[in-house]
Amino acid sequence: MQKVDGIEPTPDAEGTTRRSFHIGAIYAIGACITAALGAPAAAYLLLGPKARKSEEWIDFGDVSKLSAGQPIEMVGRRTRTDGWKVISEKVTAWVVKEPDGGVVAFGPRCTHLGCAHHWDGNKAKFVCPCHNSLFSVNGAVLSGPAPRPLDRYTVKIEGNKLLLGGLARNPETSA
Amino acid sequence: MKRHWQSVADWLEHRTGLPNAVRRFLYEEIPASSGWRQVFGSVAVFLFLVQAFTGVLLAFNYAPTPGDAYNSMRYILTELTGGRLMRGLHHWGASMIIVVVVLHMIQVFLYGAYKKPREATWIVGVTLLLLTLAYGLTGYLLPWDNRAYWGTVVTTQIAAQAPVVGPYLTRLLGGGGAVGVVTFARFFGLHVLLLPPATILLVVLHIYLVRKHGVAPVPGDELLPRKKFYPQQVFKDTVAIFIAFAVLFTLAVVARVPLEKMADPSDTSYIPRPEWYFLFLFQTLKLFSGPLEVVGAVVLPGLAVLALVLVPFIDRARLVKVTRRTAAFAFVALAAVAWTGLTAVAVASTPREETAKIDYSGPTDWLQLSPEEMTGVAYFRQERCASCHAIGDGASKAGPDLTQTSAHKDAGWMIEHFKHPDAMRPGSSMPPIQLDDDQLNSLAAFLLKLNPKNASAIQNAPDFATAGALVYEAHRCGECHSVNGVGEDAGPALNGLSSRRSRSWVVQHFADPSKLSPGTKMKPYQIPAKDMENLTAYLFSLPEQ
């Protein structure tokens, strides 16, 4: 590298140890301050807010009118904490009674890119309008780019009342 | 390997010229007399960078509109890891930067370093001081608590008094005298959009001017060989930066910055106080009244700034040794005495707060407890229950975790257990609690409500609240009034009392209720002064329901 003449000092022997002590101290202090600011900053940005209670059961109403194999869209309301706000929002689920009497509630989003799918009564399939993924009445992928079956809510029935918990990925990884 | 680095360095040098530019910057020659006294400028730049860093981090979790600003601030303080530290660094950094900038200025002033040809450097420096104060002023509003709100109300009223430009200034600050959403948006915009680039520009200009004219020498420097800026002076600067950082970090960790309740424009009892570095101005203002107020509010500060700007043009004498600059020393001493005096008087004359200060930057679940449960907290502390029992913190202690036991017990069982621990739980090593039945009842009421989520109330409930609740229960206030929905409705509910009545009204009302509320069923109470203070402080802390 071309150096500019006369800029850098030419230290004598006695000056060299002093000089390297100074330079060492500058770097050490610099590193120390960077760490003291950087570590808490990383924790602040990456750790996320303290855990709040979740796992609340959302009331979705009466399931007695469900008929087997005919999914219908049902709506519930939940309060969700979003940062410093507590939001009351609508939650939808496609609910279907299984032949054995059990109730399954599918998440409203296609597992491909998150578009809202719907039940097409004529085709008797769940249809995603974005990329034409098709799902069967039990959520399995029939065709299209969807990588896994529809996600399901955890379900609890109290009397005729349908209560939904968290949305879980379908355990079968692919159809 | 070394050759690889060399080729990278060569490439960088050829394409950008940066390595040699940095080299030139670092190996600047400085006068032989340079040393520790010149570290303040570097420390100020460092503190500015810390403010920028913590400011950006705070902005990542901050909603700049009134109301949301407060809630997001609380979120930062109570929910986020390191949030309190970031706010602490930003808050205390603001104070420290003012201290350091003033020290920097005093050093330059004492040594006469502003003299020809360095007048422009000085003027840019004075402007930077004003910018630093502008940060303090605008940033003060941003947490949107009562302190922020009322402090800014006073400031904008002062600005409104400026001759000629007053009304325009008021409009610029976003309101017809009221501090609201517009003022908030303007202050936020100034604080994060306008001031930082202005500061960067002026700091660059300031440093450019310092380099152009060189570090100011003192008489005699010309006889000695000049030094290099790097590494000796950089070492001294770095050590000073380290000391400043250590002080700042300690303050941020140790000195908790409270968050008061959310800005309440209808609060009639709030006594606004500006930040400590503006107190002297605040006090100066009080020396003038009536039509002269404008002198204290605008004319005097304006003249002071003008005088600062003109310093290099007033003092044009030849540079002499610092020890012979008696006039400069006398001036600094005088200014220091005046500043200290004004600030001290302002602090001393601050009246006692009407309402008890609650720190909303911590958990405030104690506010949800009923008075009886609150007295339970008092007995819980008095009997030192926590020395043998864990309270949801997972600590391993001799007794069971009290947040887990209450779920399947009732008050009757608990009270018997308090009296005869051994009888209810054979083999228990717990000593009987020496309290009367009412007191045990309160303790049981509190323990029944205790769960892992509200256990922090035991630590966080302020002493005035537990003591106030004891007075409340002793006088059976709950037989006519309610707190947090618990009690009777013969008298008014006491939540939100602070927004309805002043504290002195309440004190007088206790002595003679029918005088202030004709037809009331309440009888007079003679309550000792200390008890009265705790009781009113407690009642005034109760939120609206």
Short summary of the structure?
The complex is a heterodimer of chains A (175) and B (545). By secondary structure, chain A is α+β, with helices and mostly antiparallel strands.
Give the SSE layout.
The complex is a heterodimer of chains A (175) and B (545).
Chain A: H1 13-46, E1 58-62, E2 72-82, E3 85-97, E4 103-106, E5 118-120, E6 125-127, E7 134-135, E8 141-143, E9 152-158, E10 161-168
Antiparallel strand pairs in A: 1-10, 2-3, 3-4, 5-6, 6-7, 7-8, 9-10
Chain B: H1 2-16, H2 18-26, E1 29-30, H3 40-59, H4 68-78, H5 83-111, H6 119-141, H7 146-160, H8 166-172, H9 181-213, E2 227-228, H10 229-254, H11 279-286, H12 293-314, H13 326-348, H14 371-382, H15 402-405, H16 411-419, H17 421-424, H18 437-449, H19 456-460, H20 463-474, E3 482-483, E4 486-487, H21 497-500, H22 503-511, H23 513-516, H24 529-541
Antiparallel strand pairs in B: 1-2, 3-4
Task: Give structural notes.
The complex is a heterodimer of chains A (175) and B (545). With 175 residues, chain A is of the alpha+beta class. Helices cover 19% and strands 34% of the residues of chain A. Chain A has one helix at 13-46; strands at residues 58-62, 72-82, 85-97, 103-106, 118-120, 125-127, 134-135, 141-143, 152-158, 161-168. The longest helix of chain A is centred in the N-terminal third of the chain and has 34 residues, at 13-46. Among the domains of chain B are: 1-27, no CATH class; 31-268, Cytochrome Bc1 Complex, Chain C. Helices cover 61% and strands 1% of the residues of chain B. Chain B has 24 helices and four strands. In chain B, the strands form two sheets. Chain B has a two-stranded antiparallel ribbon. The model of chain B has no long low-confidence stretch (mean pLDDT 88).
